[in-house]
Amino acid sequence: MESLPTGISVLDREFDGGIPSGSIVALKADPASQSELILNRFSRVRECRYLTTVRSVDAVEEGLALGAAADETVVRDARGDDPFAVALDAAADLPDCGTVIVDSVGPLEAGGREEYGAFLDDLRRRVDEAGGLAVLHALKGASAERNRVVTEQVADVVFDLRTTVTGTEIANRLIVPKFRGGAALEEPLKLKLTDSVSVDTSRDIA
Questions:
Q1: What's the sign of the alpha-carbon dihedral 54, 143, 82, 26?
Q2: What is the pTM of this model?
Q3: For the segment 74-87, what is each residue's pLDDT rounded down to a tens digit?
Q4: How do residues 167-193 score in pLDDT, each as one tens digit?
Q5: Are the C-beta atoms of residues 141 and 29 closer than 8 Å to each other?
Q6: Domain ranges in the chain?
Q7: Contacts of 52 by beta carbon, 8 Å cutoff, 6+ apart
Q8: CB atoms within 10 A of CB 107
Q9: Nearest partner of 187 among 179, 197, 176, 178, judged by Cα
Q10: For the domain 3-199, what is the CATH code?
């Protein structure tokens, strides 16, 4: 099983090169966080099919600042009546070792349990066939989506980005409680999310 880089050097070092091919990754994060920067890095490191269920294609492309990577990343609008079909079409079109991103997975989680479970099974099969990765952007909310537990059970890797604001300091800590085929992080990883993703070396304020 090949390890696929995440595009984030600190994570690739922690995970001995990346994430096992064929994996489904759930990225849990607060809506007001800069978690889209993590998606950005995932989209740049390999050919990518980026599904947007909330924002417009133009907004996503502007946020990704595709530039030279424009030929490698295809953004598709999944805001219509059947986001499942759009997502699976993108996964079916996934090149070898490619990445499919669903941003965010909330509208799909809002569907029926059976329909959503069937979607995840199909997504896994297609990603496994391509030897690629699927990244599900699972935003946190006051009322968790009813199928969120299914997302976390099916996911091979769970990234839990926790953002706290104290005074003038914003702290982002990445917790990896689940990592099939590898070792989960023993301690939270403090990240600096600006225009890139790096280790935050600043000291916490007591």
A1: positive
A2: 0.90
A3: 999 999 889 999 99
A4: 778 888 999 999 997 777 778 888 887
A5: no
A6: 3-199
A7: 59, 60, 75, 76, 77, 78, 79, 103
A8: 15
A9: 176
A10: 3.40.50.300
